[in-house]
Amino acid sequence: MKIKLLVAFLFVLLITINQSFGQGYRIKTIVIDAGHGGKKPGASGSFSKEKDISLKVALKLGNKIKEDLPDIKVIYTRTKDVDVDLYRRAEIANEANADLFISVHCNSMPPGNKGIKGVETLVAGSHRLKEQDAAIRENADIKLEKNYKSKYDGYDPNNPTTFIILSLLKNAFRDKSIKFAKLIQDSYIKRDERFSRGVKEQGVLVLQRCGMPAVLTEVGFISNKAEEIYINSEKGQNEIAESILAAIKTYKKNIEVK
C-alpha cells in the first residue's frame, strides 16, 4: 500500500513539473522584492540608502508590468519602509504560487574601491540548493493538493525516489533562473549601456528558499558617486525598471509553450 501511495505522490509531482514548464504553461504571478527596509537600510552611499532605492525601483517595475502585461499578477514583499524577514520574503512567493521572484538590491564597496561600478544579477549557488527542497515540496503542495499529507500518508520525504523528483524540479528552477538572469544582464547592456559584472551563483538565503525561478539583481554601486546619482534619479530608475521589464517579456516569450 505504501508503495502505491508513493507512486501516486510521485505522479502528482511529475504533473507539477509538467504544469510548471510544460505545454500550456503561462506566467501568471511575479513577486517583486525590494531589498532591506525599516531598521535594515542595507548599503549607504554619500546621500542615499539602499532600502529606498530598491523600493522605488521595485514599485516602478511593478507598475510597468501591470501596464504592459496586465494578465500577470504582481505581488510586492513590501510597498513601504518596513523590514520583512528574509524567510518571509520567500514565503510570500511560495504561498502565492509565483512563477518568478525578482529581488532588487544595490551593490557597495568599502572605501578605497569607490571607482568600481556595474550591474550584476545573482542566482542561488548550486552548493547551497539543499535549502530549496522544503520550498519545492511546499510549492508542489500549494499547486496541487493541500491535503496531500493525509491523502498520501505513505509518503516518505526521505525516500530516494522522492528526491529524484525534487532534484528535477530544483534543476529546472536553477536553469530558468540563470537564463532569466542573463536576459536581465543583456538588457542592462543593450538598452542602458551599463557595465556588466555578469551572472553569479551565490548562497543568497532569500533565493535558496524560493520554490520557483528566482534572481537578485544589483542595479548599481551606491558606493560609486556617478552610479549613486544615476540609481537615485527618476531617469535611472525608470531605465532600470524598463530593462528588467524587457527581460521579463523575452523570458515570458521563450518559456511559454503553446
Describe the structure.
α2 crosses α9. This protein is α/β, with parallel strands linked by helices and 258 residues long. Helix content is 51%, strand content 15%. InterPro entries: MurNAc-LAA_cat, N-acetylmuramoyl_amidase_3. This is N-acetylmuramoyl-L-alanine amidase. It catalyses: Hydrolyzes the link between N-acetylmuramoyl residues and L-amino acid residues in certain cell-wall glycopeptides. Its EC number is 3.5.1.28. It is an enzyme of class 3 (hydrolase).
Topology as a string of helices (H) and strands (E): HEHEHEEHHHEHEHH
Number of H/I helices? 9
How far apart are the termini? 38 Å
Q: How helical, in percent, are the residues?
A: 40-55%
- The overall strand count is 6
Which structural class do you get from the secondary structure elements?
A: alpha/beta
Shape, principal axes of CA atoms: globular
Question: How big a fraction of the residues is strand?
Answer: 15-25%
Low-confidence stretches: 134-157
Largest sheet: 6 strands, mixed
What is the CA-based Rg, rounded? Answer: 19 Å
User: How much is the average pLDDT?
Assistant: 82
The spatial strand order of the largest sheet comes to 2-1-3-6-4-5
